[in-house]
Amino acid sequence: MTKSKFVIDKLAKLFEQGLISYKDLSSEIFNILRSKRDEIVFKMKLTSKEETDILIKRVENLEKKIGKLEKINLKKGTIKAKKF
C-alpha cells in the first residue's frame, strides 16, 4: 500500500508542476522507476552494471576459447580406422 502511495504522490507532484508533455512525463516516470530499482538492487547487494558487463565479457571470452579448443579436438579426433 505504501509503495503505490509513493508512486501516486510522485505522479501528483508531476501534474502540479505542470509537466504536461508526454516525453517529459514518461521520462520522469522512468526516472522514478530507475531510482526505485537502484534502491532495491542496493538493498539486495547485487553487482553494479559495470561489474556485470565485465563478467559477461569474461564469460564470452571463455566461451570462445572453449569453442576453439573443441574445434581443435574434433580435428585431431577424426582419424579413420583401417579396414581389413
Compact summary:
The chain is mainly alpha-helical. It has helices spanning 2-17, 22-44, 49-76.
Please describe what this structure looks like:
It is a single chain. By secondary structure, this protein is mainly α. The chain has 2 domains: 1-46, no CATH class; 47-77. Helix content is 80%, strand content 0%. It is rod-shaped. The protein starts with a helix and ends in an 8-residue tail after the last helix.
The helix/strand series, from N terminus to C terminus, equals HHH
Could you tell me the mean pLDDT? 78
**Overall body shape:** rod-shaped
The span between the termini is 81 Å
Number of strands: 0
Number of domains: 2
Helices and strands, with pairings:
Elements: H1 2-17, H2 22-44, H3 49-76
Describe the structure using short key phrases:
single chain; 84 residues; mainly alpha; 2 domains; rod-shaped
